[in-house]
Specification:
This protein is of the alpha/beta class. It has 11 helices and 12 strands. The chain is globular, with a radius of gyration of 19 Å. The chain binds 2'-monophosphoadenosine-5'-diphosphate. 2'-monophosphoadenosine-5'-diphosphate binds next to helix 6. Homodimer.
Protein backbone atom coordinates (compact mmCIF):
# COMPACT_ATOMS: atom_id res chain seq x y z
CA UNK A 1 0.00 0.00 0.00
CA UNK A 2 1.30 3.41 -1.00
CA UNK A 3 0.18 6.38 1.11
CA UNK A 4 0.37 9.85 -0.42
CA UNK A 5 -0.83 13.34 0.41
CA UNK A 6 -4.02 12.50 -1.46
CA UNK A 7 -4.86 9.31 0.42
CA UNK A 8 -8.37 9.51 1.85
CA UNK A 9 -8.88 8.61 5.50
CA UNK A 10 -11.82 6.63 6.82
CA UNK A 11 -12.25 4.93 10.18
CA UNK A 12 -14.39 3.62 12.98
CA UNK A 13 -15.06 5.08 16.42
CA UNK A 14 -15.93 2.84 19.36
CA UNK A 15 -14.97 2.13 22.94
CA UNK A 16 -13.41 -0.39 22.89
CA UNK A 17 -12.68 -0.76 19.20
CA UNK A 18 -9.86 -3.28 19.13
CA UNK A 19 -12.18 -6.23 18.35
CA UNK A 20 -13.74 -4.52 15.35
CA UNK A 21 -13.54 -6.40 12.06
CA UNK A 22 -14.41 -3.32 10.03
CA UNK A 23 -10.80 -2.14 9.42
CA UNK A 24 -9.97 -5.50 7.86
CA UNK A 25 -13.14 -5.62 5.78
CA UNK A 26 -13.12 -2.01 4.57
CA UNK A 27 -9.39 -2.00 3.82
CA UNK A 28 -9.84 -5.13 1.70
CA UNK A 29 -12.69 -3.39 -0.14
CA UNK A 30 -10.66 -0.24 -0.87
CA UNK A 31 -7.75 -2.35 -2.07
CA UNK A 32 -9.93 -4.53 -4.29
CA UNK A 33 -11.26 -1.48 -6.11
CA UNK A 34 -7.91 0.33 -6.22
CA UNK A 35 -9.24 3.25 -4.15
CA UNK A 36 -6.53 5.38 -2.54
CA UNK A 37 -7.82 5.24 1.03
CA UNK A 38 -7.09 3.90 4.51
CA UNK A 39 -9.53 2.83 7.21
CA UNK A 40 -8.35 3.04 10.80
CA UNK A 41 -9.71 2.27 14.28
CA UNK A 42 -10.22 5.18 16.71
CA UNK A 43 -10.75 4.25 20.33
CA UNK A 44 -12.87 7.14 21.56
CA UNK A 45 -13.99 7.32 25.19
CA UNK A 46 -17.57 8.55 25.74
CA UNK A 47 -16.43 11.68 27.59
CA UNK A 48 -14.42 12.70 24.51
CA UNK A 49 -17.07 11.91 21.93
CA UNK A 50 -18.03 15.47 21.05
CA UNK A 51 -14.44 16.61 20.66
CA UNK A 52 -13.61 13.45 18.77
CA UNK A 53 -16.36 14.05 16.24
CA UNK A 54 -15.22 17.66 15.80
CA UNK A 55 -11.70 16.37 15.25
CA UNK A 56 -12.81 13.97 12.53
CA UNK A 57 -14.83 16.75 10.94
CA UNK A 58 -12.01 19.31 10.75
CA UNK A 59 -9.34 16.78 9.85
CA UNK A 60 -11.37 15.85 6.80
CA UNK A 61 -11.81 12.19 7.68
CA UNK A 62 -14.15 11.36 4.80
CA UNK A 63 -16.30 8.83 6.53
CA UNK A 64 -16.47 6.73 9.64
CA UNK A 65 -18.42 3.93 11.21
CA UNK A 66 -19.78 4.19 14.72
CA UNK A 67 -20.00 1.28 17.11
CA UNK A 68 -20.80 0.62 20.77
CA UNK A 69 -21.39 2.71 22.85
CA UNK A 70 -21.68 5.75 20.58
CA UNK A 71 -24.46 5.02 18.08
CA UNK A 72 -27.23 6.98 19.86
CA UNK A 73 -25.10 9.94 20.92
CA UNK A 74 -23.68 10.41 17.43
CA UNK A 75 -27.24 10.80 16.14
CA UNK A 76 -27.36 13.98 18.27
CA UNK A 77 -24.02 15.30 17.04
CA UNK A 78 -24.25 15.13 13.24
CA UNK A 79 -25.68 17.89 11.02
CA UNK A 80 -28.16 15.73 9.10
CA UNK A 81 -29.79 12.36 9.66
CA UNK A 82 -30.83 10.08 6.83
CA UNK A 83 -34.22 8.28 7.14
CA UNK A 84 -33.30 4.98 8.83
CA UNK A 85 -30.91 6.70 11.25
CA UNK A 86 -33.59 9.20 12.13
CA UNK A 87 -36.21 6.53 12.80
CA UNK A 88 -33.82 4.39 14.83
CA UNK A 89 -32.22 7.32 16.65
CA UNK A 90 -28.89 5.61 16.04
CA UNK A 91 -26.05 6.17 13.59
CA UNK A 92 -23.51 3.57 12.47
CA UNK A 93 -22.13 5.41 9.44
CA UNK A 94 -21.16 9.05 8.95
CA UNK A 95 -20.23 10.77 5.71
CA UNK A 96 -18.19 13.96 5.90
CA UNK A 97 -18.73 16.28 2.94
CA UNK A 98 -16.54 19.36 3.32
CA UNK A 99 -17.19 19.52 7.04
CA UNK A 100 -20.87 18.63 6.85
CA UNK A 101 -21.66 15.40 8.64
CA UNK A 102 -24.56 13.18 7.61
CA UNK A 103 -25.50 10.24 9.82
CA UNK A 104 -26.80 7.00 8.34
CA UNK A 105 -27.83 3.67 9.77
CA UNK A 106 -26.93 0.73 7.52
CA UNK A 107 -27.76 -2.05 10.00
CA UNK A 108 -31.36 -2.54 8.84
CA UNK A 109 -30.42 -2.44 5.16
CA UNK A 110 -27.50 -4.78 5.88
CA UNK A 111 -29.83 -7.24 7.57
CA UNK A 112 -32.27 -7.11 4.64
CA UNK A 113 -29.54 -7.63 2.06
CA UNK A 114 -28.21 -10.60 4.02
CA UNK A 115 -31.66 -12.26 3.84
CA UNK A 116 -32.05 -11.38 0.18
CA UNK A 117 -28.69 -12.99 -0.54
CA UNK A 118 -30.02 -16.20 1.03
CA UNK A 119 -33.22 -16.04 -1.00
CA UNK A 120 -35.45 -15.32 1.99
CA UNK A 121 -38.69 -13.47 1.15
CA UNK A 122 -40.31 -11.35 3.88
CA UNK A 123 -43.38 -9.96 2.14
CA UNK A 124 -46.53 -11.16 3.93
CA UNK A 125 -44.56 -13.41 6.32
CA UNK A 126 -44.91 -13.69 10.10
CA UNK A 127 -41.78 -12.94 12.11
CA UNK A 128 -40.79 -13.78 15.67
CA UNK A 129 -37.87 -11.83 17.11
CA UNK A 130 -36.07 -12.43 20.41
CA UNK A 131 -34.48 -9.41 22.10
CA UNK A 132 -35.27 -5.75 22.55
CA UNK A 133 -31.85 -4.06 22.63
CA UNK A 134 -30.09 -1.89 20.08
CA UNK A 135 -29.66 -4.70 17.58
CA UNK A 136 -33.32 -5.67 17.89
CA UNK A 137 -34.35 -2.13 17.09
CA UNK A 138 -32.60 -2.24 13.70
CA UNK A 139 -33.57 -5.83 12.92
CA UNK A 140 -37.23 -5.39 13.91
CA UNK A 141 -37.42 -2.24 11.81
CA UNK A 142 -35.82 -4.11 8.89
CA UNK A 143 -38.33 -6.96 9.14
CA UNK A 144 -41.23 -4.49 9.01
CA UNK A 145 -39.62 -2.57 6.17
CA UNK A 146 -39.15 -5.85 4.34
CA UNK A 147 -42.90 -6.34 4.44
CA UNK A 148 -43.65 -8.85 7.22
CA UNK A 149 -47.36 -9.09 8.00
CA UNK A 150 -46.66 -8.97 11.71
CA UNK A 151 -43.79 -9.01 14.12
CA UNK A 152 -43.88 -10.72 17.50
CA UNK A 153 -41.20 -9.53 19.92
CA UNK A 154 -40.15 -11.62 22.91
CA UNK A 155 -37.81 -10.29 25.57
CA UNK A 156 -36.70 -11.25 29.06
CA UNK A 157 -37.33 -7.74 30.33
CA UNK A 158 -40.93 -7.02 29.39
CA UNK A 159 -40.73 -3.22 29.85
CA UNK A 160 -37.95 -3.14 27.27
CA UNK A 161 -40.06 -5.20 24.88
CA UNK A 162 -42.93 -2.78 25.38
CA UNK A 163 -40.77 0.26 24.67
CA UNK A 164 -39.44 -1.32 21.49
CA UNK A 165 -42.95 -2.36 20.49
CA UNK A 166 -44.14 1.21 20.84
CA UNK A 167 -41.42 2.48 18.53
CA UNK A 168 -41.79 -0.28 15.92
CA UNK A 169 -45.61 -0.06 15.87
CA UNK A 170 -45.16 3.11 13.84
CA UNK A 171 -44.00 0.88 10.99
CA UNK A 172 -46.37 -2.09 11.18
CA UNK A 173 -48.15 -4.68 13.30
CA UNK A 174 -46.11 -5.46 16.39
CA UNK A 175 -47.02 -7.46 19.50
CA UNK A 176 -44.74 -7.99 22.49
CA UNK A 177 -44.43 -10.88 24.94
CA UNK A 178 -42.38 -11.88 27.97
CA UNK A 179 -39.85 -14.70 27.60
CA UNK A 180 -41.82 -17.72 28.86
CA UNK A 181 -41.69 -21.24 27.45
CA UNK A 182 -45.47 -21.65 27.19
CA UNK A 183 -45.76 -18.35 25.29
CA UNK A 184 -42.78 -19.06 23.06
CA UNK A 185 -44.07 -22.48 22.03
CA UNK A 186 -47.22 -21.01 20.48
CA UNK A 187 -45.33 -18.17 18.84
CA UNK A 188 -42.83 -20.57 17.28
CA UNK A 189 -45.60 -22.49 15.58
CA UNK A 190 -47.10 -19.34 14.10
CA UNK A 191 -43.86 -17.85 12.78
CA UNK A 192 -42.35 -18.22 9.32
CA UNK A 193 -39.08 -16.59 10.31
CA UNK A 194 -37.46 -16.65 13.75
CA UNK A 195 -34.66 -14.20 14.60
CA UNK A 196 -32.39 -14.03 17.64
CA UNK A 197 -30.94 -10.61 18.41
CA UNK A 198 -29.97 -11.37 22.01
CA UNK A 199 -26.42 -12.11 23.02
CA UNK A 200 -27.30 -15.64 24.17
CA UNK A 201 -25.24 -18.14 22.20
CA UNK A 202 -22.07 -16.06 22.08
CA UNK A 203 -20.47 -18.06 24.88
CA UNK A 204 -20.34 -21.87 25.15
CA UNK A 205 -21.73 -21.82 28.71
CA UNK A 206 -24.82 -19.74 27.77
CA UNK A 207 -28.17 -21.32 28.63
CA UNK A 208 -30.81 -21.85 25.95
CA UNK A 209 -33.00 -18.84 25.27
CA UNK A 210 -35.97 -21.21 25.16
CA UNK A 211 -36.40 -24.94 24.67
CA UNK A 212 -34.76 -25.42 21.27
CA UNK A 213 -36.32 -28.88 20.87
CA UNK A 214 -39.59 -26.98 20.31
CA UNK A 215 -38.42 -25.36 17.08
CA UNK A 216 -40.83 -26.52 14.40
CA UNK A 217 -39.41 -28.03 11.23
CA UNK A 218 -38.73 -26.07 8.07
CA UNK A 219 -38.76 -22.52 9.42
CA UNK A 220 -36.18 -19.89 8.58
CA UNK A 221 -34.03 -19.29 11.68
CA UNK A 222 -31.64 -16.35 11.84
CA UNK A 223 -29.11 -15.51 14.55
CA UNK A 224 -27.28 -12.21 14.27
CA UNK A 225 -24.31 -13.74 16.08
CA UNK A 226 -21.57 -14.73 13.61
CA UNK A 227 -19.02 -16.22 15.99
CA UNK A 228 -19.53 -19.11 16.60
CA UNK A 229 -20.85 -19.58 13.05
CA UNK A 230 -23.50 -21.98 14.34
CA UNK A 231 -24.88 -20.98 17.74
CA UNK A 232 -26.72 -23.67 19.73
CA UNK A 233 -29.96 -22.14 18.41
CA UNK A 234 -28.86 -22.48 14.78
CA UNK A 235 -27.45 -25.95 15.37
CA UNK A 236 -30.74 -27.16 16.82
CA UNK A 237 -32.71 -25.48 14.03
CA UNK A 238 -30.49 -27.02 11.36
CA UNK A 239 -30.96 -30.47 12.85
CA UNK A 240 -34.69 -29.90 12.56
CA UNK A 241 -34.47 -29.14 8.86
CA UNK A 242 -34.76 -25.37 9.13
CA UNK A 243 -32.93 -22.97 6.86
CA UNK A 244 -30.37 -21.24 9.10
CA UNK A 245 -28.56 -17.93 8.60
CA UNK A 246 -25.95 -16.45 10.91
CA UNK A 247 -24.96 -12.81 11.39
CA UNK A 248 -21.95 -12.71 9.09
CA UNK A 249 -24.07 -11.56 6.16
CA UNK A 250 -25.47 -8.69 8.19
CA UNK A 251 -21.97 -7.62 9.27
CA UNK A 252 -20.73 -7.72 5.69
CA UNK A 253 -23.70 -5.95 4.17
CA UNK A 254 -23.91 -3.15 6.74
CA UNK A 255 -20.28 -2.51 5.78
CA UNK A 256 -21.07 -2.79 2.08
CA UNK A 257 -23.84 -0.20 2.32
CA UNK A 258 -21.50 2.14 4.24
CA UNK A 259 -18.81 1.66 1.57
CA UNK A 260 -21.32 2.56 -1.13
CA UNK A 261 -22.45 5.70 0.74
CA UNK A 262 -18.84 6.87 1.03
CA UNK A 263 -17.51 5.96 -2.41
CA UNK A 264 -20.56 5.81 -4.68
CA UNK A 265 -19.21 2.48 -5.93
CA UNK A 266 -20.65 -0.99 -5.58
CA UNK A 267 -18.95 -2.77 -2.70
CA UNK A 268 -16.86 -5.86 -3.49
CA UNK A 269 -18.97 -8.08 -1.23
CA UNK A 270 -17.22 -11.30 -2.22
CA UNK A 271 -13.81 -9.95 -1.19
CA UNK A 272 -15.23 -8.62 2.07
CA UNK A 273 -16.75 -11.99 2.86
CA UNK A 274 -13.54 -13.86 2.06
CA UNK A 275 -11.40 -11.73 4.34
CA UNK A 276 -13.85 -12.02 7.23
CA UNK A 277 -14.32 -15.76 6.85
CA UNK A 278 -10.56 -16.18 6.80
CA UNK A 279 -10.15 -14.12 9.95
CA UNK A 280 -13.05 -15.63 11.89
CA UNK A 281 -13.21 -19.24 10.83
CA UNK A 282 -9.86 -19.58 8.99
P1 LIG B 1 -27.45 -5.15 21.58
O1 LIG B 1 -27.10 -3.73 21.28
O2 LIG B 1 -26.49 -6.15 21.04
O3 LIG B 1 -28.86 -5.46 21.19
P2 LIG B 1 -28.27 -4.91 24.33
O4 LIG B 1 -28.94 -3.63 24.00
O5 LIG B 1 -27.48 -5.01 25.58
O6 LIG B 1 -27.30 -5.33 23.16
O7 LIG B 1 -29.39 -6.06 24.31
C1 LIG B 1 -29.12 -7.37 24.66
C2 LIG B 1 -30.37 -8.23 24.46
O8 LIG B 1 -30.05 -9.58 24.86
C3 LIG B 1 -31.55 -7.80 25.33
O9 LIG B 1 -32.75 -8.07 24.65
C4 LIG B 1 -31.38 -8.70 26.55
O10 LIG B 1 -32.56 -8.94 27.28
P3 LIG B 1 -33.00 -7.93 28.48
O11 LIG B 1 -33.59 -6.74 27.82
O12 LIG B 1 -33.99 -8.70 29.25
O13 LIG B 1 -31.73 -7.63 29.26
C5 LIG B 1 -30.93 -9.98 25.88
N1 LIG B 1 -30.25 -10.88 26.82
C6 LIG B 1 -28.98 -10.78 27.28
N2 LIG B 1 -28.70 -11.78 28.15
C7 LIG B 1 -29.85 -12.53 28.24
C8 LIG B 1 -30.21 -13.70 28.98
N3 LIG B 1 -29.34 -14.31 29.82
N4 LIG B 1 -31.47 -14.19 28.82
C9 LIG B 1 -32.35 -13.58 27.99
N5 LIG B 1 -32.06 -12.48 27.26
C10 LIG B 1 -30.84 -11.95 27.39
Amino acid sequence: MKLTGKTAVYGIIGHPVKHSLSPLMQTAAFEALGIDAVYVPFNLAPQNLKEGIEGLRVLGVKGFNVTVPHKEQVAELVDFLEGDAEFLGAVNTVKNEEGQLTGYNTDAEGFLRSLLEEGVELEGKKALMFGAGGAARAVGYALLKGGVKFLHVVNRSFPKAKALGELLSRRGNVLVYPLRDSVVETLLDEADIIVNTTSLGLHPQDPQLFDYSKIPEEKVVVDIIYNPPLTPLLKAAKERGCKVINGLGMLIHQGAVAFEIWTGQKAPVKVMREVLEGELYG
